[in-house]
Amino acid sequence: MRMAGQGMNRRQMLAALGVAGAASIGMMYGQEAVSQASVIGSVYSNPDNPNAPKTVRCFDDVTCLLGFAGEYAGQQVSLKGYRPGTDIGGGLLVWDPARPKSAHNGGTIISPTAAWDGTAAGLPSFFSGGGETNPSGSGCWVRLKERDNEFSPESFGASGTGNEQSMVQAVLDAAKVWSVQHGGKRPVIRFAGIYTVNGVLVYDGFVLLGPGGLKRDDGIIPSSSIVSSSVIFGNGIKDIDIFELYVDGNDRMQGVMSDPVYRQGNNAGALGYQNIYIIGKFTNADRDMGTIRIQNCRLVNSPGNGIVVNNHSQASITGNHIERCGKNGVYLAQTHGFNTTVSGNYIRECGFVYGGGIGIAHAHVNASGNVIVSCYEYGILISSTGVGARWNTDITVSSNNIRGVKRQLLDNSGDPESFKASSLGVGIGYTQVFVTRASTRLNVAITGNSIQGAEGSGIACLGASYVAGFLPYGIVISANSVMLCGSAGLNVRYVRGLVCTGNMATANGFADLYIDEVSGSVASNTVVCKYPVADRVTLGGIKYEAKKRHLSAADTKPGVNADCWTVVQTSETLPEWHEDEVYAPVLAPSTYGIYSIYRPGGTAVSGKRSDLLLDLNHVEGVDNSNRLSNVNLVRKLVGGTAPTGLPVRAGDKIYYDAPVSGSSEGRICLFKGVDTPAAAWGGGQTVAIGERRTNAGKLYEAVQAGTTGTTAPVHTSGNVSDGAVVWSFVDTVAIFEEFGQIGV
After folding, report:
1. Which of 11, 100, 533, 658 is 20 to 30 A off residue 701, Cα-Cα?
2. Is residue 173 situated within a structural domain?
3. Measured between alpha carbons, how far is 738 from 668 in angstroms, rounded to an integer?
4. 576 and 590: one domain?
5. How many CB atoms are located within 10 Å of the residue 351 CB?
6. Across-strand partners of 57?
7. The Right handed beta helix domain covers which part of the protein (predicted)?
8. Which of 28-42, 135-149, 467-481 has the lowest mean pLDDT?
9. Could you tell me if 558 and 528 lie in one domain?
């Protein structure tokens, strides 16, 4: 006997309660189509003698029902199954003599004078009323349902075997007709099994429910000549709910997508192959836009994107599990997208063609609380590219956990600094490619995210090549933790109105903070330039130490991959090894702690270095005792010369890596010089008052304008003429005023 809480459908309840108990079913399910009286009538009565019992006739399948017209209105029959030899898709049907045969759809409304040979191949014709002998007549069998607005593929012959495109599309089309006939009431389509399709169309107002779903047929291979072949596609959608659905783009696509034709940037051939693609019904005149909700679904193996939505006003994409997509797990496309929430999703291994975890080309987006693991090119990318550029504003990216972003489309130049203008391999990125007046207004907040092991930069905010009138402004980067990234922890260029505060950047390859032509504030960040202790784990009772930085997976498992792990003997209590963790050995300090570029030759944000407040940052250097506070520009922490393009200005505080005389320690100095380097002195040069020249390692400033003479200045105090121009000696020893040492 069924226990409380277990489900029971109408047929099972009839069997359990017996005929006498059937009268209560309508009330228990709250159904609209079947009342208490109609259930009693269908079981007991006939029009001639209401007191005479009447049994419900039973049929094996729909082919047996064809040719049998009802004997009276309300007569019921029972189907064992829909297709011959199965017990799937059966149920109760009632005779409606007034129902036009033109209403026949083969699933919820069946004309007994239509024709079907019982094969799957014959179903498309049957659904459209093929072979109907009385097309202008009336009289159909109407399926009784527990809820009038519910539909299922089984009612149209689907059984989860073979390609069932026609059956699934038939139930969707029937639900659309029902909705129109009921004043726009929302139909619910329940998927109990997994049905193989080529790609289906869904309509406005639909509710699609799992736990079953759809899988793309093996034979539907991507082609650059096909614009779109999404598993689920809806166009002009105002309201749709997709809950707990399983959608499989077919794992055979991964092999297909590795073909070079699909590894070309935007990849038009794969672009249309989404698992779910919903185009909204945006119009400025319609304030009540409805909502697109895709929640708690499992989406796998898409050649293109897992989910695409665009041209809508409100969307909620939450709690989904998305894996192995060729482009993005979620892509908010470029045309008129507003007010979207992308939260609580688990996204893994997306972007193997070109893409990543979440791509955003919308406005008014909240992307928060997502876990993004082992994706390619980027974890989350805000891109003002193409049509949507002018809408790409008011975006919050917060509290996401991003680990192990690969860099599939590597720069092959061998330049270790190629990351500076690249959004590839980043944890979170903003990139401006399509520049318009409206695209300068951003209002973007990137806060509270945890990023580990991105092969490019942890966070990259990249304006387009310098365009004075259209530099983006309004980006907040705060309270993020970025560590073990291959290039920069935070990489910001060609942006104004930046607030970069309270971030933690640890052991990132080139620089922990990289700043290029930025106005705003970079303050109160903490930089730890090295990874001081190697990660150790235990697996199978054996203890291991990491040999290189990597994202753990089956092929980098201890005991399997000797390049990643070495066995250690230790009495330490160690954590168990897990997949999807970033592990690393001891790492030397980042090449630069804070690297700031200023180009005084005319390309600066405003032409004034003071537009960037770079202050109160905390830097840990070679070991844990090396802590600098109130440091602006930090040069190489260990050895090397001053980096090209790393200027300083009067008043900047800097860690200067030339040691104090007789000591191995570097100095913390106050820079008293000027912002621009001096050219070498030479005879016959035209100079203005205040210009500087160097000679023999000494610095001089012109007291007067003129053309230089023939006697190079060599004096070490006062003013001396070179035969034509008087030069004032500048004491370079005093340029750096020491106010502290490091490591003492």
Report:
1. 658
2. no
3. 6
4. no
5. 27
6. 77
7. 291-465
8. 28-42
9. no
